[in-house]
Each structure stands twice: as C-alpha cells, then as structure tokens.
Amino acid sequence: MASTSTIFLVLRIYCRSVRTRMMWWDDYLLIIGWMFLMIGVSLQTVVFGSGYRVTTLSGPIITPANLASDNAMKLSLAFSKTSFALTLLRFTTGWLRPVIILITCMTDIMCLVHTILVWRPTCGAESAFSLGSCWSINSGIWMNMIGSIVSAVTDFGLALIPIYSVWDLQMVKREKAGVAIAMSIGVLAGIVAVLKAVEALEVTRVVGTEFSRRLAVLSIWIHAEPNATIVAASIPVLRVLIRDVAKSFASYHPSAAHYVKSDGVFQSANLSNVRATSINSDHDSETVILPIFKPGTEADDRYRAEGQEAVELRKLHAHVPSG
Length: 323
Fold this sequence. Notes:
transmembrane helix, elongated, 10 helices, two-stranded antiparallel sheet, single chain
C-alpha cells in the first residue's frame, strides 16, 4: 500500500512541477502527510516484527511504538485530507466553501483528539508510558470505530462536492463527467474507513489470541486509509498526464491516431474541426484540476498562450470544409 501511494504521489508532483512549474500548499501538505505515513509504516513494521504479547487480562500488550504508529497514521490522514480540501477550495464558490472548511476542521479535530486519547492507559494493565486516567480495554477500540465513521462521512462529503461544482461549468457533458469522477475518487477512502469501522467492531467481540490477531488486522486498515486518501488526491492531476501520453502516442503512430479524448469524442487525422474542439475542452478542464496561476508569472503567460492557441486553432478549422 505504501509503495502504491508513493508512486501516485511522485507522479502527481511530476505533473505539477513539469506541467505548471509551480507547487502549491495542497502539494506540500500531501507530501507532509506522506512523510507521516512512512513513519507510521516503519513503526508498525517494528510492532509486527516483535508481535503482540497476550497478558493475563486476555489482551495484547500495546507498546509505545504501536501508539506512535497510530499517531503518525492519524496525522497523515489529517494532512492528506486537508490537502484535498485545499484543492477543492480552488474551484468552489458560495456555500460550498464553508462546508469544505467545516468538514476539514471536523477531520483535523477528530485526528488531533485521537492522537491524545490513544495514550490513555488500560485499567488493570501496567502502562508506564501512558498518560491520564485509565479506561477499559475496549474504549480505545470504540474511539477508533467512531473516528472511522466520522472519517467515512467526511470522505463521502468531499467526494460529492466536485460533482456538484463541475456540473455547473461550461464544458462538454462527458468532459464534466470525466473531471467529476477523477475528483471524486476520494470515495475509496470513505469505503476503507467504513471497513475499518467494521473491523473495529469485530475486535470488541473477541478475546485472547484472537483479540491480538484482530487488532493486527485493524492496524492494517488504519494504515490503508491514509494510503487511499493520498492516491485519491493524486488521481485528478494524473488525468492530465494520461491525456498527454495518449496524444504523444498518437503523434508518433499516425496509423493508430484514433483514440478517445477525455471528452469522449472519437479522434482521427481527418476530423480536424472536432480535434480543435476537443483540445479546447481539455484545456478548459485543466482549470479545474491544475493550479490557478498568479497573474504576470511565467506559468500564467504560458497557460494563456496555450489557451489562445487552442482558440485560434478552433477558429481556423471551423472554416475548413469537411470533405
């Protein structure tokens, strides 16, 4: 999972740095989230290597490495979701912006509270490293389950916002669908959060060595959620890379220059006017996915030049007979 999210993040950074030559706060926050993810994975590897020892209380001995790994995962989740929320704020207006901010604050507060409460000791067990008053052995599991439910709700909320926003843009309908789907992949993180909540419920129903095994499985799901979030936040940017690869392949293979662009129109060498329309459509869609450049910068000048070139190309082919 960690390798998959790393690949997607590297490709996202490549698209941003090469395509626009400008990184923004959502990119930096996602990188920070990935760094916490790597820390959590490393600590959890140590925990799995030593195993969960079972005490006389029929529960596993939770080591500081396990709790620190859980903290790193929660911080990774908070940073990665905040990154995606910042991306959404770039092209949303009106009442959607306060909703995004509210969802982000709920997620961040939930993660922060979890990172503190997870260190509370279990009543009846020796926990010299824990802080605060003790609670029952299942209390931490229930806290994780409630947090997973909140996380799932916020994931689904952030996934639905792009669909509502993109559908009002002046774009081809199939192009709208492509952008909306790309921006709504965050629903995968919501599904992972639901599965994590179900697994947390199962942990509360078992004892002994089965409790330790279930806790190990729950740890895997805890690590899966930030991985899924990083992948979901990277996919919208990769859409541009896939489009450019398809165009490059078509230019080097004229006989195979028939492909479907992101607006769903079948392209070929003798459909010049349709090609020009599609180029402009793809260019419009990038205003949703790629950063909005600062006026007067080199990136802004290049972006405007590309847009003007697409417009002139469309006008030129509009006067060419379609023999």
